[in-house]
Each structure stands twice: as C-alpha cells, then as structure tokens.
Design goal:
Length: about 425
C-alpha cells in the first residue's frame, strides 16, 4: 500500500498525470473545433434570421435588372435560403431567375423559376439546380398544388410526381408571402426519356411540336435536341396511340391519372393544358408527371374553345358547367375512347377500389398543412386579396377557403365513388 501511495504522489507520477490530463484537453479541443467546422460548412455561414414554422427564400435582384418577365433569365441574383430554425442553408450571388406561368405570369404576386449555380438539396428534397416557386395566386387556400401532388403520390404516378415544400419569400426588402417551392416536371424523368407535353400553349413556344391526326397539340420537352429521324419516329409512335390508344398505353398510369384528375376536379385536361406523357422502354406511353392544380377542387365552366371560366360566368352561352356531380375529363385526351373499352373501364374501377382508402386518409394531411401554413397564409391573404379578390374562388379568406377545400374534397370522394363505379 505504501508503495502505491509513493508512486501516486511521487513528483514524476504527478508530472505524468498532468501530461495525460493535458492530452485529454487537447483532444477535447480538437473535437470541438471539428464540430464547429462541420456546422459552419453545414449552415454555409453563421447568418441567421428569426425562426418560423416555414423556411425562407430571400431574393435580391441586381441594381440594373429590368422587370422580371417570363422566359427571360436575370443573372447574378443573390439568393439566400434559410431553414425553419433560421439558419442559412444556401447562399449565392450567381443564381438566375425568370418569371413563369401563363395566366399567372402577369399577376401582382409573381411566380418564379430559379436556376442555382450547383445542385442543392433543401428540406429533405432531392438535390436539384432548378426549382420552381409557385405563387398560388388563384388559390385562396394556397394548398391545391401541394394536395394534388400528394394525391398523385398515393398512386402509380408517385415516381414521377414532383416534391415540394411551403416557404416564405422576400424579394429585396418586400415580403411576398407564402409560396410552394417545387421540383420541375422536366427533372422527373431522366435525360434519355422522351417526355411529351400536351398543351395548346406549347405549339407556339417549343421547337419540336406537332398535332396528332385527331388534333391534339404535342410538344417534345425531352430530350432538348432531336435528330430529324428521332422526331419523325416520335410523331409516328404518338399517332399510333392517337389512332388506337388501348394498345399503346400503360394501363396503371392512365387509369390512375384519370382518377387523380377527376378526384381533384381539375378541368385543365380539356384544354389540354399541362398534360405530360413519356415513353416506356417497350414503346408504350405512360402518363405523368402531374402538374398545375391552380384551378382544381372547384366548380368551373368550360367554354367552346375548352378554356376555363369562373363559376360566375358559367351561365354564358356555350359554357359547360362542371360540378362535384360531373365527370370533368371524360372527353379529354384519349379518354373519350378509353372509357368505351370494357377492359380499361374495369381497370379504372379496380384501381379506384384499391386507392380509395388512401385518398380518404388525406384529410389528415390537409389538417397538417393547415397547421403548418395558417399564420403565414392569413398574412398572405391580407396582402394580396384586394388586388384581385374574386379570381376563380368563391371564398376570399384563407380560413373559409381551407374549410371549403376540405369539405369539397370529402364531398367529391363520395360522389366520385358513385360516378366511377357506375361507368358503363
């Protein structure tokens, strides 16, 4: 025992203990410095803004930038993105922005396309260098696009359905309210896949466009460049499907797409507007990605040119009224013939019975969105409502618009069950 005490208190022993203690302190300091370096990298900078339930996107345009317009990129924009806790997760002075949309592009609350200087992942979303900021100006509930995408994710359309998150947006020093930051349609299929858009607007905008023998407007959105033989082959394959769709389509995606668009009461297919298809490796056409639910979940008029009209104009001559009791898209795209084929109708009914329980569970998802966005959504409505109060909605406040959306969705579930199961 004395020997042990002697060795413990001997000056040499105390010196060795001090050296070990110093080594522990040095190791601790190195670990601490490593953690600080990691978090400095993770959060890009120490800049922080006040926390919120929602992330924040701050945009500053160059001093010499002109008005933001559709299809014209403004370069050298300062874009900073913060997570919901207020920490900066992205900052660049080399981003590019442009206006987007057709009917929404000239509205006071602007939608944007963003091109970053490199691919980045935000808020659990896939890494992308191109993002869309949807203003949802026509939608007083501000969640139709998010809900439409979530409905599609319950189906075979899920692999090509864009993901997104609600964010607050500030441009310069001006608050712009609540936006939906989403992936682009073009990023939902790989670069080797031929992606088609059926949209009358696209005939005047894209390089590779044509009309099918039945008159449907088609634009090849991917790949960006086509040889003449490949473009001719695409036209031939699409026209084969146009002549006899039942033998040239993927049953699951076509059935699910029909059900999703009907459940959402989305009449844009009548245009057609924003309808996408892509070729599978075996040459069949699949539908997707879904896009554009701005005017969904409402009763609406369709005029003789297949343009949508607000409910207040549905009494005008030549305008066909669509309500929760209607099938919105029975005569759109190739569904006029597909729904006359007994095998396809049976597939639609079978898919509806499989998917209906999933659709019924989405009211909980709607409630979670409401809890997330309500404070910002009310401020957004107060900021923008007076600039075009009617729009297509019958409700002009966020609380009433959300309540109406939820009630409309629940009513449509019941009525669509009868409409689908009674298809001849």
């Amino acid at each position: 025992m004395k020997g042990c005490l002697f060795h413990l208190w001997h000056p040499w022993a105390k010196h060795r203990i001090m050296r070990k203690t110093r080594a522990v302190y040095i190791l601790f300091a190195l670990i601490l410095l490593g953690l600080l370096a990691f978090f400095s990298w993770k959060y890009v900078s120490s800049e922080k803004v006040s926390s919120s339930s929602l992330p924040l996107v701050k945009i500053t345009f160059p001093d010499d930038a002109g008005p933001v317009v559709r299809d014209v990129w403004t370069e050298d924009c300062n874009v900073r993105i913060y997570d919901a806790t207020g920490w900066s997760v992205y900052s660049s002075t080399y981003a590019k922005l442009e206006g987007r949309g057709h009917s929404t592009s000239d509205k006071p609350k602007k939608p944007y396309n963003i091109k970053l200087d490199k691919q980045e992942s935000f808020f659990g979303l896939p890494a992308r260098d191109r993002w869309v900021l949807l203003a949802n100006f026509f939608d007083h509930s501000l969640m139709r696009n998010a809900l439409g995408q979530e409905i599609a994710r319950q189906t075979s359309l899920a692999p090509t359905t864009p993901q997104g998150r609600f964010v607050r947006v500030v441009v310069g020093e001006e608050n712009q309210g609540l936006y939906y930051m989403s992936e682009r349609v073009l990023d939902m299929v790989d670069d080797e896949t031929v992606l088609l858009e059926f949209d009358a607007y696209a005939l005047n905008e894209d390089e590779y466009t044509f009309r099918t023998h039945s008159g449907l407007p088609v634009s090849v959105r991917k790949p960006k460049k086509l040889s003449t033989p490949l473009f001719e082959a695409v036209q031939e394959l699409v026209n084969r499907a146009d002549a006899n769709p039942i033998n040239h389509i993927d049953f699951d995606t076509f059935a699910d797409y029909y059900l999703v668009e009907e459940l959402c009461q989305n009449a844009e297919l009548n245009g057609p507007r924003s309808c996408f298809m892509y070729f599978l490796p075996d040459g069949r056409l699949a539908v997707g990605p879904v896009w554009d639910f701005d005017l969904a979940f409402i009763s609406v008029g369709v005029d003789q040119g297949n343009d949508l009209r607000p409910l207040r104009k549905a009494h005008m001559p030549g305008v066909r009224l669509l309500t929760a009791d209607s099938l919105y898209n029975r005569q759109t795209l190739w569904y006029d013939r597909l729904l006359q084929d007994s095998s396809f109708v049976a597939h639609v009914k079978g898919r509806w019975q499989q998917l209906k329980p999933r659709f019924e569970g989405l009211t909980t998802y709607m409630d979670s969105l409401d809890n997330l966005i309500r404070p910002v959504a009310i401020l957004d409505q107060q900021q923008w409502n007076h600039l075009e109060p009617a729009r297509f909605d019958t409700c002009t406040t966020y609380p009433s618009a959300f309540a109406t959306l939820k009630a409309t969705y629940q009513e449509r579930l019941v009525k669509l069950d009868s409409l689908v199961m009674n298809l001849p």
